[in-house]
Structures are given as C-alpha cells and as structure tokens.
Write a structure and sequence with these properties.
The chain contains 28 helices and 8 strands. The chain is mainly alpha-helical and about 550 residues long. A hairpin with a 4-residue loop joins β1 and β2. α6 crosses α25 and α12 packs across α13. The longest helix has 17 residues. It is globular, with a radius of gyration of 26 Å.
Amino acid sequence: MLAVRNTLWPSVVLVLLALAPSFGLADTPLHERIDRAIATAQPDFARRAAPPASDAEFLRRVYLDLIGTLPTSNEARAFLNDRSPNKRTALIDRLLAGPEHARHLAAAFDVMLMERLPDKHVPRGEWLEYLRSSIAVNKPWDVLAREILSSDGVDPKTRPAAKFVLERGAEPNVLTRDISRLFLGTNLQCCQCHDHPRIDDYKQAHYYGLFAFLNRTSLLVDPTLKKAVLSEKADGEATYQSVFDPAKTTKSTGPRLPDGPPLKEPALEKGKEYVVAPTPKTRAVPRYSRRALLGPTLARADNEAFKRNIANRLWALMMGRGLVHPLDLDHSANPSSHPELLKLLADDIAARKFDVRGFLRELALSQTYQRSSEQKASRENQLPEASYTVAILKPLTPEQLAASLMQATGLTDAERQALGKNVTEAALYARLSPHIAPFVNTFGSGAGKTQEFDARLEQALFLSNGSTVRGWLTPRAGNLIDRLARLANADALADELYLSAFTRMPDAEERKEIANFLSQRQKDRTVALQDMAWALLASAEFRFNH
C-alpha cells in the first residue's frame, strides 16, 4: 500500500495544494504533511525515491532511534510474523510510552547540551536522572530549557538542572557561545570581537545582547553548602568595541535576544539593589536578576530561532541530518534544504506546546522516516542526503553501540534473567550502565566536538582484541551463546544469530556459510559459535543504523 501511494504522490500533492483552503491541510497529521513537503521538493519523486523499508529494516531503526538498543530475537520474530496493518504505528506508540525511551532520550539530550564535558560540580548521574524523569512525564522542551537556564544550583531539588551553567564555570562568553548554538541554532562565537566576517546575519550586537543576560553572574563556592553555586551582581553593563572599528567606539547594550527588543529594566532605589548583598563569602542575590529573565525570554513559542532549533535538532536525531546543516549555523546564506518544511515543523512543535514525544511520534510515522536506506540501482537516481529520498545511514552513537552489543550478546537477557521477579527498567540499567563508559571513551568524540563516524584503529582493536565483547560471548545462562548452543538445527541457529545481531533473517548464502563453518568445527563448537557471533558484531552492518 505504501508503494502504491508513493507512485501517486506528485499528482495528488498538486491537487491538494490547489484545493488547500477547502481541504484544510492544517488539520492533516504532521507526518503526512512532512511527506508532501519532501515529495514536492524533488522532481520525479515517485520514480527516484527509495521504496518503504522492509519490516526488518524499520524494526531495527525504530528501536535504535526511540529506545537506543536492539529488539530481542523474540521481539523481532513477533514483529516480523505480525500481519496487522497497523503494527508499525502500534510499535512506535509502545516504544515511546516505555521507560526505555525516557532513558535513551535523556542520554541524547545530555550529549546535545553537555557535549561530553567532564564533571566538575554536578555528577552526571544526577543530571541524567533529572533529564530522564523530566522526559518520562513528557515535560515540554520550553519548560525544560527554562529550568536549565534559570537554576542557580542552591536548592538540591533543582541543582541538577544547573549543570549546563555550572560545568561551563558560569563564564559569560562560554555561555553566550553555547546558548546561542544549542538553544538558538546560531553560532555567534566570532561576534565576540566584531560582526561575523562571513555571515552577514550574525552581528556583534546579537552576541552582547545575550551576553548582557549573563555578564553579572559568576561562580562562588558557598561555604555553608560547600558547593559551587551562582552569584549575581546588581550592576555591570555589557560594553563592546569592534576590533575593525578604527574609531574604537564603545557601545553598550542591555539584555536582548538577537533582533529582539531590549528588555525594560526597573529603576531600583539606591541601597536596595540586593536581597542578599555580596561579600567575599556570601552569594549575591540581586532584587532584579537579568539571568533569571533569560530562560523565560528565550524559551518561548514566539521565538522563531528557539522553535526552529529544537525542530531541526529532533529532525536530525531521527533522520540523520538537519534540514539546516550544520545544526548551529542557521542563517540566510545557509538556508534549510526544505525551508517550508522547517517552518512547518517549527510552527508545529510550538503549537503542540513543545511536546517532544508527540513530535517524535509524527516523525517516526512519516514515510520519509520509514523509507529504505538502499538506493535504487540507476545512477541517475543517486540523490544527495539532503533530499531525504533515501534513508540516511547513521553510525550508532557510543551509547547505542554499548546497549546494542549488550543486547545482541545476551548480556542484557542474562542480567534480566538474574534479576528475576525484581527486574525493572531501573534495576536492569543499574547493572548495565557501568559498561557504557568504555564505549564512550573509545567511540565518542572529545569534549565539545560533534559526534561523527570515524573508524579509528583503537576502535577496531577494542572490538576485535578487547576483553569486553569477548567476555560477553562467554556462555552464561540466558545469553546468546547459551541459546545458540542449545540449537542443533543449523537453520534455527542461523535465524537466532542473525535476529539477535542484525534484527533480520539470514539469506540463503548466509545460512550455507554458517552450516559449512559449524560442520568443520564440531570439536570446538562453543568457540566456533563465539567466533561467528563476534564476526557479526564487529561488522560494518552492526555499526550502522540502516
């Protein structure tokens, strides 16, 4: 049915667009509007676009994207054997509703916001739990953003949210740079000294408008709490000069968003500027806080940059590339690949009050997301990634790789079995989480760097010669090798192995290879099973989300 609809897309879209007022396209589900926008942007779309992904390809992709790991072999069998026409929608809803989704999205938001910076003031576990619990109750993104930008680190209940500011040392220039990039999608770092030399949209005044929210704030180790907290003066203006200005004219600005109006500030009676006056050992609390206004001013539905940024980042999380790419260079000289679509997405997420879960659901339901990653054979059909006519291959993040290897080797199943009646998502995560750090250290980009696929020698050695994955392939009750050892039939064994590793059935040639390999290794069958499993888990197919 999906393939039939694809062949009709161009003509149907033209009719619908012509009749837009009477058809009420604004009431059409977002996922259908996404597909129309992608189809209309590409001439001869129906002939050139990839077909829908197979059930196996979709299953692996949606598990990795929504909960960060692979399905069990039993879950894969159940889905592949299910003949229900709505099984994909039902699966998406089930994954989004489960506790694993909140855990996975918390890890994704952690990397997005903290960029793997080292812990100094707030333990990462506390920060992750803050994100996880917020996502579990579907806290809107604008509320989350306001909490992160407003917390001063004093109240233990809200201290984890202050990690974003505290780990950056409350340094105003660092915060101005990172808030503009991560919350507004605009990298204003070059504007600290002058208007951006290559991007006309980025001005020095924009930089210092944001800077003015932050330049009165500093870090102080509270002697009572014995922890770093935020202190804020009641005075201090944001002044700047352009290094390219021969006259060295000094300008000043109050707090304001880029291209936004200046905030009106109250006139305070002299001597009454503070709730708590500053001393060398006392945290200053002004009666009027500029920093406290940053979150409420920035994280708003009518802030175009704020809603465009989160819509674009969530799109990239699911689709493998931003509509604006790179994600933090949203400006007129680097337009969106699909401008109307990005506006649609930004307006939609704001209209749904920044409901991230509902937004991700619509992305996952789209044909664009559910398209195959296999290009059509004809060279003329080879289109750029930004066309979204073919699903983009995405390397697994370090967290996804760790969780997927634990699931594929059966470590997760074995730990689940060991917990017995006491098994919960939290209890299982507590047992497995210590194994994640070595993968982040080996496969992750450095602090502050964008995560990209780079097949380095130490990564190959970690998978091939390291003790971690090999250790997980040691026979243990409930794990992969234990299950394979109980299967005498070569075809059944091949099915279990490929479903566990690749979430698909083996083809005829792969079945033959397994049967031949095992027939030659009867005397050391357990070792042979470990070698076969390792070969699949160390393969390029395993490292990518197809």
